[in-house]
Write a structure and sequence with these properties.
This protein is α+β, with helices and mostly antiparallel strands and 110 residues long. The protein contains five helices and five strands; from the N terminus they run ααβββααβαβ. β1 and β2 (45-46) form a beta hairpin. α2 (22-34) packs across α4 (65-77).
């Protein structure tokens, strides 16, 4: 028997953000899947942040590292995602992200 799992997606994505470029939309959808898409029944809430690598985005989106890096920056600028490092500090620039050992992503959509 096959089981199908669903990822809840914030309505705001469909209502306001379908104009995004393809790579931006794909990166945003990966972040949504890896965070909002996981529901912790014990805590009664979705996962807020997830550690994601650029290689993971490449694998999931079939886009180049350069395109993904640019899309991440554009999504940060549009306030659709937030990125923090392993110390919990927000990293808003590519330079700060390159200096980080781990990057944690969160969608700001609700």
């Amino acid at each position: 028997m096959a089981y199908f799992y669903r990822t809840c997606t914030p309505n705001e994505l469909f209502d306001k953000h379908l104009h995004l470029k393809e790579v931006e939309l794909k990166v945003l959808l990966v972040v949504i899947r890896q965070t909002y898409g996981y529901y912790d029944k014990k805590r009664g809430r979705h996962k807020e942040w997830d550690w994601l690598t650029i290689s993971f985005f490449v694998k999931k989106t079939s886009k180049s590292r350069k395109a993904i890096g640019l899309a991440i920056q554009l999504l940060i600028n549009k306030r659709l995602i937030m990125v923090k490092n392993e110390r919990g500090m927000l990293v808003h620039t590519p330079e700060l992200r390159r200096l980080s050992k781990k990057l944690y992503f969160k969608t700001t959509l609700e």
